[in-house]
Amino acid sequence: DVFGATYGDVFADVETRAQAMAAPSKRAFRIEPFKHRVEADPQYAERTWKLLEDAIKEIHNHNASGLSFEELYRNAYNMVLHKYGDRLYGGLTQTLESHLQEVVQSIHSAQGSDFLVQLNKQWQDHVKSMQMIRDILMYMDRTYIVQQNKTPVHELGLKLWKIHVVRNPTVQDRLLSTLLHSIETERKGEMIDRNLVRSTTKMLIDLGLPVYQEEFERHFLSSSSKFYKQESQELVSVSSCPEYLKHAQRRLNEEVERVQNYLDATTEAKILQVVDQEMVGAHLKTLLDMENTGLVPMLREDQYDDLARLYMLSKRVDNWINVLKEAFSAHLVELGKSIVCDAEKSQEAVAFVESLLSMKEKYSDIVHQPFANDRTLSYAMSEAFEHFMNLNTRAPEFISTYLDQNLRKAKKGAEEEDVEQTLDKVMSLFRYLEEKDVFERYYKQHLAKRLLSGKSASEDAERSIILKLKTECGYQFTSKLEGMFNDMKTSADTMERFKQHSAESSGNAGVDINVQVLTSGAWPSQPSTTCRIPAELEDCCETFRNFYLSTHTGRKLTWQMNLGMADLKVHFGDRKHELHVSTYQMCILLLFNDAEGPLTYEDIRQATGIPELDLQRSLQSLSLVKGRNVLTKDPMSKDICSTDHFCINESFHSKLYRVKIGTVTGQKEHDPERAETRRKIEEDRKPQIEAAIVRIMKSRRTLDHNNLVSEVTSQLSSRFMPTPPAIKKRIESLIEREFLERDGKQRTLYRYLA
User: Fold this and answer.
1) d(CA 699, CA 752)
2) Contact 257, 198 (CB under 8 A)
3) What's the confidence (pLDDT) of residue 371?
4) Taking a C-beta distance cutoff of 8 angstroms, is the pair 44, 114 a contact?
5) pLDDT tens digits, residue range 181-216?
6) Residue 230 C-alpha from the chain's centroid
7) Can you give the pLDDT at residue 668?
8) What is the pTM (predicted TM-score) of this model?
9) How far is residue 324's CA from residue 299's CA, in Å, rounded to a whole number?
10) Are 279 and 251 in contact (CB under 8 A)?
11) Between the CA of residue 323 and those of 285, 287, 679, what are the distances in Å?
12) Residue 121 pLDDT
């Protein structure tokens, strides 16, 4: 560049002077041929090239200090100017090839570790030499090479180095084996000369990325694959899963550092893919299934760091999510089955639900933290919970019972935030239920008992859970529950007016009655009872009936004595107690006011008309519960028989003035009751299935059987999962009632009849 700028300036100066000399005269110049014959020197090209060739050799021999680069540039310039560019370019190529043959011999003669040292030294010398040669031949680079479409001088030097040195059989294999050996040595923990390796790989990169890839990278990746394949096979058989994962992570970090230190940046993704596949992908299932250290033990022991490392490494290999999802889901299903199918836990609602809540909380944290909130694994967890929770048909009942326990006054001391968090957690389990209508039936029963007995801890909490249910399942799901709250408010207003009316009429002396008026469609259906109201209450009940019907025409009142409660003042010798009992228990106890001696079971049954099962429970509660046994039973046994005799327990004693007597097993369903509840649920489902069929057919007009079943299932899945046989029966019923008809030609095709 320096020489080019110098001669350019000279030529520009000559032209400027010529213009200045010509300026005074306006005559036109005419160029004429020489008047004498000019003969060119026939030896000019060879003689000039010889000078340039000697100079190039001196440059290769590191003797360039005595050369006149200005003179050499002028000679090269003149050769090109006189059309000897071919000779100049060809001579340069031959000279470089001859020199590189000597270089190859020098490199080949180097022994051991000196091989790379000599190679790099010769490469550096070659690069410097080519820079000086390029400067001398710059005019040829700019004119002749461009016109003849030849390889530029500097690129020619790189090309010849690639052909005669790098791809020389005596150098090529040795270069590759030396580089690969150095890298493997470093992988085994020994020190190597990284600068030397970096210089060598940089030489290959400077020769062109394809050269680097062809001569080194592809072999490097292949040897790395073999190395890590062998290492992983040896390591996986002797290491625990966490230890293996740590080693794999360390290897990945080492390869990243290796690329940064002496390899091309484009190699990073490729070598990491090799490590991922050989260290992780090839053994992922084996690692997950390790008996004492695999995925399941890590999940059980909450090894968050190891789980996070497992997730991050697994994520780097193909098809990882399916392998991890399968193992994760299998563990959740197995663990869930151990809870829902456990004979002990499946009998206790609180233990059942709390076990599921604990499991849900634990694995939700694992999905959110070590598994980085992975959507696929989160969905897998939901699928697993939905699968195993519905294996136990009592799951809806247990969840409702658990909510009942938390919403009762027994939990009144709990903080509002704690109650709200509990409700949110229970709702997360509720979402997995397929039979949400079963939950609805039990929840209505539990809510009714809480409201009627005044045992609800917080109306805000009650309203909150109803709002959550409405958000999850829609307005129709909670409309009756909200109706129950409205009835309670209306009943309070009614009783206030009734008490005012009673005070004005001076009735019901000695008896304070509180009546809850319930809308039959909103509350759980109750069997009609034949309990005979004691004489002390008949007048009060009749007075309220007359009062209510006088203000509400067209209504019918039916007394539900099985839902009522009463407070009685009782004398036990010289001791007084106030007993809080059910209406049935009150009816039994009031019989003893007029009894002259013990009453038999049959006497009580005939006098009260209480259903037999409720009567047995009431007598058990009054006579067999320690600390609450206000009656004595003869003979003394755990069961109630028709021949038993009962009388007031005159020796009854309690530290409390007000004694609450519950009903034995009143909070639980027995198998016959549970079977009856299930039967009622199945009956309630029939009109819902039919309504869905009619809605779909009214919209579609014509539909085949399979698509109709699919759409009905989809519509009803938010409440329950109807079975295909149940849907088929409802279709047949609708055909019989002429809502639908079968197609005359295709029996599986249905048509809607308007």
Assistant:
1) 9
2) no
3) 94
4) no
5) 999 999 999 999 999 999 999 999 999 999 999 999
6) 34
7) 56
8) 0.76
9) 13
10) yes
11) 7, 11, 43
12) 95
- Whole-angstrom distance, CA of residue 203 vs CA of residue 341: 69
232 closest CA partner among 215, 224, 244: 244
Query: What is the distance between the alpha carbons of residues 26 and 23, in angstroms, rounded to a whole number?
Result: 7
The Cα–Cα gap between 440 and 444 comes to 6
CA-CA distance, 130 to 134, in Å (whole number)? 6
Backbone angles phi, psi at 552, to 5 degrees: -135, 100
- Which are the contacts of 550, defined by CB distance < 8 A and separation ≥ 6? none
Using DSSP, state whether 752 is helix, strand or coil: strand
The H-or-E segment that residue 566 falls in is: strand 565-572
Starting from the edge strand earliest in sequence, which strands make up the sheet with 658-660, in order?
565-572, 575-582, 658-660
As a whole number of angstroms, the distance between CA 546 and CA 539 comes to 11
CA 47 to chain centre: 81
Give residue for tokens 């625990």.
Answer: 240
Can you tell me the distance from the alpha carbon of 682 to that of 438, in angstroms, rounded to the nearest whole number?
10
Give me the DSSP letters along 667-728: TS--HHHHHHHHHHHHHHHHHHHHHHHHHHHHHHSEEEHHHHHHHHHHHHTTT----HHHHH
Asked if the bond preceding 210 is cis, omega within 30° of 0, the reply is no
On whether the CB atoms of residues 621 and 671 are closer than 8 A, the answer is no
Give the separation between CA 370 and CA 311, rounded to whole angstroms.
7
Are 468 and 420 in contact by the 8 Å Cβ rule? The answer is no
Estimate the share of the chain in helix, then strand, then coil, as percent rounded to the nearest 5. 65, 5, 30
- pLDDT for the residue 186: 95
Length of the chain: 754
Token look-up 């020098």 returns 106
Query: Given the structure tokens 């519960």, which residue do they identify?
Result: 625
Show the CA angle centred on residue 502, arms to residues 498 and 506, nearest 5°: 180
DSSP 153-183: HHHHHHHHHIIIIIT-HHHHHHHHHHHHHHH
pLDDT recorded at residue 9:
41
- Residue identified by tokens 């993704």 is 269
Q: Say what the alpha-carbon torsion angle 242, 248, 253, 255 is, to the nearest 10 degrees.
A: 170
> CA 95, CA 136: separation in Å to the nearest integer?
15
Of 322, 238, 239, 236, whose CA–CA distance to 280 is shortest? Answer: 236
Distance CA 490, CA 119 (A): 100
Token code pair at residue 665: 């097993």
Kindly state the tokens that stand for 265.
């940046």
Looking from the CA of 431 toward its CB, the CA atoms found within 13 Å total 17
E-only strand ranges, 173-280: none
Q: Tell me how far apart the alpha carbons of residues 595 and 291 are, in angstroms, rounded to a whole number.
A: 73
113 Cβ contact list (under 8 Å, min separation 6): 193
Instruction: Show Cβ contacts of residue 160 under 8 Å, excluding neighbours closer than 6 positions.
Output: 93, 96, 97, 100
User: How far apart are alpha carbons 531 and 542 in whole angstroms?
Assistant: 15
Core vs surface per residue 232-271: b (16+ CB within 10 A) or e: beebbeebebbebbbbbbebbeebeebbeebbbeebeebb
The closest alpha carbon to 311, from 377, 360, 255, belongs to 377
Residue 6 makes CB contacts below 8 A (sequence gap 6+) with 70
